[in-house]
């Protein structure tokens, strides 16, 4: 399909203005196929992976029919994780930047419900949230979906993997029968088929080819002489490639923890991401990885699904994925936006049958590769370029990114180009600073004031 312009869709002028300001000119394949039926009010099932542009597809659809003067919840977007919900809400707000008075509210678990109830009392047009927390609000009668016009299920397969069926059914039981349903999923298991048959009205099915190809991701399969060489192999590859940003996939939570600890013992800046982390630990881990305070994220498939992790230099399969779909999803995190990505899969002779299966199911021709020379183990592990400082003050204390930047770069402060990403949460803020500036930055924040107040600050 030749590239199509958003201007051919008959969108509201304010949305075209937002798209233009964001530099969005032509549609991705999933947008070109799904937007016409979405804008026509039809139910749509879209099958496409992270990075395919599906968020903008459903975001434009629900914003185009939104009546900002009617202050009621008109659209609900359900996501499997808080991180994805935050990402989706950000994208919808960006698309709505030229539309007056559109209020988007996120309702997710892992944060206190009280402030959310207060926010709901002030009203919202669009809710983005996780199924469990939305179900909580419905049970407490603090959320009214009686006038809902559009229901979106994003990464629906993941919501079923995570056990959200009953919460989803509670939502379906609380929304008007006459509504538009938009369902997006990377895969289409039986559970999704059942939901479509039960709750959707003659949905249009849209499926796009994988957005990555052989030219954007180079796959390397490293055959190990024995199991004991697995950690050595990973260290050698990391020392050779020195990726600024890489994800290492393990199949179990325990392996994830053990491997991250082992990498740290060898001097790497590695973090573990798995299902046993509480919400604050999870948030900290993702902030530190996104702001380049850690170069290596060791994760399970469930923990890493739906996360906003872009521009990875490399993906490592410390263990072969359980099936070809999970393998494709893992390696699809690298090689985005026209950049060359690399995926490395480690396996022993005992796992050769799994490699043969991948060859057949993914139509690959796999040539085992050898490891870099073992002398590399004598090299020092490379450190991440940034360090994260945590400030015990956030949105509630009216702390803004500009306040943090000003406090760091004021009189006798560090240079502006030594300050990286700033993330403001409810009760704390995270700021990345260049490693060489970490000590003076910490001292500057401890000695100075933010919003006329002193806050506790520490490196994490």
What does this protein structure show overall?
Residues 4-32 form the DEAD-box RNA helicase Q domain. Belongs to the DEAD box helicase family. Its EC number is 3.6.4.13. This is DEAD-box ATP-dependent RNA helicase RhpA. The chain has 460 residues and is α/β, with parallel strands linked by helices. It folds into 3 domains: 6-207, 3-Layer(aba) Sandwich (Rossmann fold); 217-378, P-loop containing nucleotide triphosphate hydrolases (Rossmann fold); 386-459, RRM (RNA recognition motif) domain (Alpha-Beta Plaits), CATH 3.30.70. Helices cover 37% and strands 19% of the residues. Helix 12 (279-290) links the parallel strand 10 (270-273) and strand 11. The longest helix is centred in the first third of the chain and has 14 residues, at 82-95. The mean pLDDT is 88.
């Amino acid at each position: 399909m030749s590239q199509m312009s958003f201007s051919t869709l008959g969108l509201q002028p304010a949305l075209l203005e937002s798209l233009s300001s964001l530099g969005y000119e032509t549609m991705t394949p999933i947008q070109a196929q799904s937007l016409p039926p979405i804008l026509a009010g039809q139910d749509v099932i879209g099958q496409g992976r992270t990075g395919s542009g599906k968020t903008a597809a459903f975001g434009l659809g629900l914003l185009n029919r939104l009546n900002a003067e009617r202050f009621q919840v008109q659209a609900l977007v359900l996501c499997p994780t808080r991180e994805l919900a935050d990402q989706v809400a950000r994208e919808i707000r960006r698309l709505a930047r030229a539309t007056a008075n559109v209020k988007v509210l996120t309702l997710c678990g892992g944060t206190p419900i009280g402030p959310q109830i207060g926010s709901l009392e002030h009203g919202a047009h669009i809710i983005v949230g996780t199924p469990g927390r939305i179900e909580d609000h419905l049970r407490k009668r603090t959320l009214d979906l009686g006038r809902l016009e559009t229901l979106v299920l994003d990464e629906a397969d993941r919501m079923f993997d995570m056990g959200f069926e009953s919460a989803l059914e509670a939502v379906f039981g609380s929304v008007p029968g006459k509504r538009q349903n938009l369902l997006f999923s990377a895969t289409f298991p039986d559970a999704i088929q059942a939901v479509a048959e039960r709750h959707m009205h003659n949905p249009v099915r849209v499926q796009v080819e994988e957005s990555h190809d052989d030219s954007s991701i180079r796959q390397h399969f490293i055959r190990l002489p024995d199991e004991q060489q697995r950690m050595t192999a990973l260290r050698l590859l990391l020392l050779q490639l020195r990726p600024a940003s890489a994800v290492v996939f393990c199949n179990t939570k325990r392996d994830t923890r053990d491997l991250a600890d082992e990498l740290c013992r060898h001097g790497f800046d590695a973090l573990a991401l798995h299902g046993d982390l509480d919400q604050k630990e999870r948030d900290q881990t993702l902030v530190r990885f996104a702001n380049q305070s850690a170069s290596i994220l060791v994760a399970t498939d469930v923990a890493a699904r739906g996360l906003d992790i872009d521009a990875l230099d490399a993906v490592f399969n410390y263990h072969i994925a359980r099936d070809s779909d999970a393998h494709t999803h893992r390696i699809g995190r690298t090689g985005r936006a026209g950049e060359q990505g690399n995926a490395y899969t480690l396996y022993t002779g005992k796992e050769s049958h799994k490699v043969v299966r991948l060859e057949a199911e993914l139509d690959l021709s796999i040539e085992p590769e050898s490891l870099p020379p073992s002398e590399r183990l004598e090299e020092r592990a490379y450190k991440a370029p940034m360090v994260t400082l945590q400030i015990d003050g956030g949105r509630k204390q009216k702390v803004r990114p500009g306040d943090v930047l000003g406090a760091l770069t004021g009189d006798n402060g560090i240079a502006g180009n030594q300050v990286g990403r700033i993330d403001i949460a409810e009760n704390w803020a995270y700021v990345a600073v260049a490693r060489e500036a970490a000590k003076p930055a910490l001292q500057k924040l401890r000695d100075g004031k933010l919003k006329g107040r002193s806050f506790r600050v520490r490196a994490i």
